[in-house]
Amino acid sequence: MAAPADTADVLSALRLGWYLAEVRGRNRPGGPVPPAESLPNRAGHVLPLRIERTPEELRIEAQAVVSKLAADLKVDTVTVSGQKRDLADTIDQQAMALAAAKPEDAPAAWKALAQSIYQFDAHTQDVLAAQSGTQSAAYQLGRGLAEVYWALDPSAKCEPPTPDCWAFLLGSQRCGELTRLAGRLSSYFNPYCCPALAGTLHLWLSVAGDPGWRDGAQDHLYRQTRRWYELLILEQDPSTLIKPYTVFRDWHASLRAVQALRAQLVTAAVSLVLVIALIINGSSNAFLKALFGVLGVVGLSAATIQAGLKSAAQSLLTRLRQDVYTDLVAAAIAVAPAKPGADRPDRVVAEEIRKRTLTTAADAAVP
Hints:
This protein has a two-stranded antiparallel ribbon. Helix content is 64%, strand content 2%. A hairpin with a 2-residue loop joins strand 1 (77-80) and strand 2. The chain has 16 helices and two strands. Helix 1 runs parallel beside helix 5, helix 7 packs antiparallel against helix 8 and helix 8 (193-208) packs across helix 15.
């Protein structure tokens, strides 16, 4: 299936939402510090990979990405009292001021920066909603997925929920909306990405709702968000994440799909028996002769019935393969800590991702 004409703009909106959440998280005092690698030293101005850059360098990089994407999508400038103001540039300047601020000046500097980010987000949502529903949905999806890590304070109390706690950022309201946004945008991605994303969101909904399970899970959550980024923004083929021979080792996935479709499979089996009967006994069996006579009166021939039953069986088999493959992809992209007390943590993950509310498009090819 050909990609929609506005794919580039939709992906840019997705990236903008993602990086705005990252900019806020990297500048927030006491914000998250992702696990990272580093160079042995910087002697001779050796060049680091992205994972080897310092937090300061990554903060500057994120701000540069926001500035560029905001300009591309024409959401960088707002008119206030007849004067044009570059919001992205303001955020960059205030972030630099916060980084250089003295400890006693940091709270005021952060308050100013947080307000500018809020204004930028409100302006961006307004502009994108007016010009494109899909770009608006992509912006919200990107920001919402990134915020589950960058806006999180693992120590925040969840009773009552606060905007930076597990129960809000990965609660049923947010996870449900992120799943719906992904469903609306499914035509822009690999057909298995959004259903797999929905499965991992349900997994993390369960992790976040269990204080014992979520304890110490922040690094796992960061790796999960990076996996989402690779699939949605870098457009990695999810089949590359399935380990070799997983299809043979994880026969439980096929069994679960068979159990879920047992009624349809029984129908298919009956159809197969009828097809065989039509082929073998169609010309000699008196009952079938009478049946064919009646059906012939209404315009149905044995060949038509046989073709219809064959088509139904093939459609069912295709759906069965799609569901099995979606479960394999979702399990492959899931990154979560083992549930305390679980005898088979992999079974727990499989059970959670199967509760997803998105399914694969009917015309999706199975590798």
